[in-house]
# Entry
Amino acid sequence: MLADMKSKPLKMGNSYAGQLKTTRFEEVLHNSIEASLRSNNLVPRPIFSQLYLEAEQQLSSLEAGSRADNEEEEEEEEEEGLESSSPVSYQMKPPPEGCCTTDGFCQAGKDLRLVSISNEHIEVPLGFLLVGAKSPNLPDHLLVCAVDKRFLPDDNGRNALLGFSGNCVGCGKKGFCYFTEFSNHINLKLTTQPKKQKHLKYYLVRNAQGALTKGSVICWKGAELRGRQSSSSTCPGTGFQLPESSGLSGSTTSEPPPNPPSATPQTATAIDHIPSTAAFGSAAYNGKESPKQQLVKNNLSALTRPSVLGTLTNSGPPKKRHKGWSPESPSSTETWNLPLNPQVPNRIKNDGGSLSSLPHSALVGPASSPMVGSGEPVSVPDNLLKICKAKPIIFKGHGNFPYLCGNINDVIVSPLLYTCYRNSQSLSRAYEQYGAPTIQPISEEMQLLLTVYYLVQLASDQVPLIEDLEQIFMRSWRESHLSEIRQYQQVIPQTFPQVPSQIAPVTSAQLPWLAGLAASSCNDSVHIIECSYSLAEGLSEMFKLLIEGKLIKTNYVVIICASRNRAIDSCIVITGKYQARVLSEGMLTPSDYQKEVNYQLVTGKVESLGSFFSTLCPEGDIDLLLEKFYQENQGHISSSLSASVNKSTVLNGTGAAVCTSYEIERHQIRPFQLAVAQKLLSHICSIADSSTQNLDLGSFEKIDFLICVPPSEVTYQQTLFHLWHSGILLELGLEKQHLTKQKVEQYVMKLDAEAQIKFKVFLQNSMQNPHTLFVLIHDHAHWDLMSAMHSLYPQTELSTGLVDRLLNCREVKEAPNIVTLHVTSFPYALQTQHTHISPYNEIHWPSSYSNGVDLYHENKKYFGLSEFIESTLSGHSIPLLRYDSSFEAMVMALGKRFPRLHSAVIRTFVLIQHYSAAMMAVCGLSQMKNYTSVETLEITQNLINSSRQCPSGHGLMVVLRIPCTPLAAVAYERLYNVRERLALEDNFEIILGNPNSGITIGKHFVEQLKVWQKIEDVDWRPQTYLELEGLPCILIFSGMDPQGESLPRSLRYCDLRLINSSSLVRTTLEQELGLAAYFVSSEIHTEKAVVNDVLESDPEKLSSTDNEDEEIATEGSTSERRSPMKRERSHSHDSASSSLSSKASITAFCSEPSPPLVTAGDRAKSPHQVLQVLSNSTEETTNNHERQRQKVDKGAQTTISKHLPPGNEQLDTKQNIKSTQISITSSSSSPFSSSSSSSAPTHNSFILQTSQCSMTKSSKQPPIVFLPKLVYDIITSTDSSGLPKSSSLLPYHSVMWASSFRPLMSKMMTCTEQSLYYRQWTVPKPIHMDYNNRNEGRMDTFHPRRLLLSGPPQIGKTGAYLQFLSILSRMLIRLTEVDVYDEEEININIKEESDQCYHQPGDTWPDLETFKEIPFDYTIHDPKYEDASLICSKLQTVNSEDRSMSRRQEDMYTHRQTTRMRLSKYAAYNTYHHCEQCHQYMGFNPRYQLYESTLHAFAFSYSMLGEEIQLHFIIPKSKEHHFVFSQPGRQLESMRLPLVTDKSEDFIKSPTFTPTTGRHEHGLFNLYHAMDGASHLHVLVVKEYEMAIYKKYWPNHIMLVLPSIFNSAGVGAAHFLIKELSYHNLELERNRQEELGIKPQDIWPFIVISDDSCVMWNAVEVDCSGDRKSDYTWTERNVSLKHILQRIEATPNVTHYALIGMRKWSSKTNTAEIKEPFSCCHVHDFIMLNVDLTQNVQYNQNRFTCDDVDFNLRVHSAGLLICRFNHFSVMKKQITVGGQRSFHIKSKVSDIPVSISPAQYICAPDSKHTFLAAPAQLLLEKYLQYHSHRFFPLSLKNYRHPVLSVDCYLNLGPQIAVCYVSSRPHSLNISSSGLTFSGLLLYLCDSFVVASFLKKFHFLKGATLCVICQDRNSLRQTVVRLELEDEWQFRLRDEFQTANAKEDRPLFFLTGRHI
# Structure
């Protein structure tokens, strides 16, 4: 071979670069065209890239890991994919009439099958080759064809001519020019387009004997080189494949194989371990490479991520229609398509992670196997199944696998073990990222040896699990390389790794010997066959031993072919009947399982089983016995039954003994559910709060929802029931008071055929109501995760893939108002690498305890899986999980007798037989007790007797789980008949629970339920299982999976003995056990005293009253200490194991009135009687019993030997049983004896003491669960951390492990950690709906509005999500509401009582002349000034009542009256509001660039400040059109102003200024909606130090930044600068526009100054249509700010008004207030200011409070008009942060916050008072507000003698009145004649105040004066200038200052008394 390699030049690197071969070009062109025609969505790869990149594929020939034996399986996959996923099926031309259409024959009727004509002479024309074609209908056969070799590819897979030329070798017909025509002739019967590449598979060659055999694979397209030869290592001229061991391993050659330049010999060897296509095929088309080739090509050692390996294990190319598949995307091959039997074609989609859920390869022989093969064929003997009673399963291990022929239907070949070996070879790849290639993978020899060790330690009733094996490999590898792993976790990656040294010392020569040594200890359970030449001889020997019956005790045969000079070949054959049966059945998908069972039922194969049962009963056929019993007892039974029934009804009638314990739980929210609902809500809020803007909660006004449930009628009705009783529909306002069922049904959708209609309505609603948040709840979300693409198979149900089609549709994904909530108990399948759900959006049910503290006080304890498992571990309680060994033994024996019957059929028939016999035994046919098991008898006895223990007839429910619907129907029919024959039809009901139909129960039982539930509706029928509370019944629960049905509290037994135990997947197991999940009352009452009364010496009495169920919660109860048998029972958890149970009566409740019928002695015999008939020897069974006897649960602390005599353990099983038995005899002859007629008086006393409704007792105890032994072992076995084995199983059918190299799960993992584990280590299969989630080209594949709620089954998730809807709705309403101040105007009684009306109520605008007549109202009416000083005027008649301070200082903001208002569409918003309309306005829309802003300085001089003021504007680019810039330098010149005459509907003329501080998040600056989209200019006025934060939150707003000197200033400074800037700007605009010919007076002079808390605006509409003129009505409605401003701006003569404002809104506004539409009074909060008229009136820039009142008084005194529009009002939102509250007064000395009272705000000058860090003006204002009575003692509550305040208004507190006068000449002042003042306040008085002015006013004797100046010097000057000493007396100690340090420029006061 190497010589050939030398002679043939290596085509590497650029061998094709730049060359175009004509044929190649045509081929690629043809394929590209074809691909584009076939492709439905993906873009085909360009032709030239195929041609030029072809060279790179040379490298892929190195891969060589794809062995020949993968070929067939790959093609199977490909065919299946094509047939199933092709959207248009291929219509074959109908064959000519009369011709042969048999598969395997040509139309002329000649046989073409290779097996038939392999020895015939076939004439082959020159240039033709014989090839094998595959027919989809004959997977086992090849059809022989002769094809012109020009149309076949060369060794490189290239240069095949397009088209076809072939001959039929059967009839000899020649010249077929089209493959379509040829395929019709040879009856391929294709459902897809016939293609030679797909159907011509193998070259056919003659072997040494001259027989035609299958040769090498026809290598189409050259992309995937099958086998291990590369293009340069193929033997020229032959189609043979080299033996696999030669290949590239290169171990025996002196010369290394050709490697790419970068590859070392070590990496070349590693190629062998790259997951090859043996188990999961990977082909490539049109030059496309498989992911493996890509890996090889990129760098052979580049596999660094462990997860990547998992992707590869199942990777292959897409189907033909995905021609554009890229090398990076792992492809989508999934399954093998093999008919189970010819009538039942199947698609197998499960290739899970356990040997018991194998890929469904070969159920019919090697053609189904991916390993076919090389070397000599092995013939499978005839009658193998008949002789062995089971189909052996052959797991291909290492190396070559021989070709099987002969009776191949009787063996099964599987690749799973091979895949496992190959995956574990890649373990060390994970550490390559640490530069650690020296860590060698586990060697093949070691793998095989470990496998043998594993098989040896398996018990005879255990089945191997692939997970176990993977963990063994993982542990072994880690332990042997622990030091290297640790070392390489710290080193730097090496560039050139050293060639590794072999670490594992086992050599191939030692292997057989070591394996044999290991197997020698296992009593021949594992048999080793060593062969020297090939596996073929070992397989032949194995078949021979099987036929000779020498492997009867052997469960596993390991065949090893090891020689020194080559790699080992191995395979493992499962020959154990039980193991082979379980594993082969585990290969079936759920649907195939159903089909197989159905097939066996329909074809009558089970009849042999029935006839066999009848031979077991020595008394003859059971049916005859029943009939005889019925005839004999008809009269007696019916009368006694009717008597007992009548008795109970009479009791009910008289009310004497009615059971009071009956109640069906109504909807109530438990603390847990509320906690979960709140967690859900917080997740929703965090989505909304994130910067991604995926959910805008603020834009939603209400909630709507749709709950999707599986198509189970009971689950649907159950959800409707919960929804109805939760009241949620009324609460959300979705429905009105009168709810009907039809209305409720709109909100719940069954995922069935009709779902799409309901879902369409839901989607339409969501589109039509963008302001409604729709919550789509997907309950039981793990139920159908089938990809919609894969549910197109014709034979699947309509409902599969519905979830994907509906919930994953584009409309749902893109709708901004739909949130999807998946709710499930088993979230694992939604937690894969490709999940749509972010880990941050998962909500897990909280645990009830944290560090031993009970977090949620609940009155019920939840019993779930962990509690059930716990009950099996503790040695002091009765286990709740059990298995029935006599049932298992019988099933096993029957399984051997009937190997062709599915075990589900056998198990079901045995269990029905047991139930039937138990019913007969309870009814008095005591001989039948030998034909049932103790467990079944316990169940039946308690069921039948339960209703007679309760005066009302309440009873127990028994759930009998039969997943297979046809079997459930059989069971129902049989049990129903037995019940009728035994006249028990009124005693208990048998219900067939089918997921697709409702509940049907008898009329008698419906009436009973109606009485119990007090239902009067004549037509009522129970629709949920919960409504069967208290009904004695057997519920036969069918359906492959439970679909979320809840069971009532009267459930006592959950019989899961018939669940499909061969398909071991975590979700499946846990959901079956979830049926029994249960809430138990926290306080469990137990009647210990009863048991204590029994004498220990009387075993009979002990057993009949000893009640196992009582002891679930009683630790170490007396009965347990007394009964060694009881202790044993708690270990083995199996009442039949060694029949040690002391409880053959098994009374579930102490008050057992019926006689115990079974004696332990009889019971002990019964399994043996049965088994003797079943098997020739009892040896095996006895071994079983012994094994169970010795198997003591590890969790128990005590051992059997403590209780049993030492000799006992060595006794024979039968003796053992006898030595420990307790005989129980019947205490009464009548089978229906009631407690009163019992013949055992001692028993009666106990019964009467404890008689209690059995349903009540069952509600206090969790149900008892019976499991198959296999499942029981898996559930109860734990790993070292205590994690149940079931938890580490593959989580779900449609996912697979990403890698065998994965850490073990741990019991300590939280739900979140488990989720992250599955997210890292599982990937969805192609049939899973998340499979394509990675291909969307986005890095983040999570859907932002998708949540997952997971919690244990039956724990209350429905209640939690309904509660979530409720609180979400409340929150949305809260979000759309706002707290606005709602206070009545103050000082209404001080208003002038004037009857004069100046305007009509309906006037729109004030009349200027009329308005001038309205007197100014000095009184403040704004409620925020309730604690401000009253302003007196001559006109007012002041009442002298006490206006004492009604609120404390700190109450001022917190206790103002507010009301909650719904935001209207015209509201102003803060930064939390996001909606589509205002994204651009806000500047946050990601589609736009973040708005750029520019900083512009703007300076103007102001004489009063004595310096130039420099302001800065921040102007976003989008707002620059509002400004004028100088042309060359882009200097800001002015802000554009409109003209008075401008009129536009979409334009607001007045610029709006909003001063703000501390409210960057909460200020209401988003005026987009308030302005109704109108164009407006809005400027935020901010302090310099807050500029950056405001700019961050409001990037698209214009900012006016105040100079830094104003950083600590109050609102007065902002108002002052706004007004001065605006006037300066007005002048600039007048000058600018004057040049354009516009008069100065035509420029618009108004600005708006608005508070940052104005949220909505209202307008009063007056209707004056009454009869009299004075009659009118009015309504107030919310309007836009645009409406109000445009109305005000349109006021006639508007420029004559100086200030225009509006009312503060109040809900208490009365008619009188709006009778006069316009007032001349104070205006606040939202004003329009005429900067032209008020040019000479300034705001006081020093003020912090009341600056608007001060300014209003100045404007009025200047003779200017102030107009308040009373028909308009502004609502102010209560904002609790920022604003005035941002000023904190604290000590300047220490940083420690100390509360400082206002009295400390002033001090004597030069004193050592603590100085404060606060502006002097603020200290002054605050001091005067709270302590002004110190300065003006006479003024306190003296409202008739106010304080005279000159040129300013300062708040002196509510108990002092002030009178404002202006010193300006010509100013308007009140007439002070007749007024005597109690004080004088002179605040920073200017030169207009002169002595003569002051002398006009009169003061009371003792009145006080307060002069306030900037410094002590000006204080003295003022006293002198105003000649104050003439009338006022001053003292030195009356001088004060604000408590400021000198550098903070304190203010100084001087006080004096009037002389």
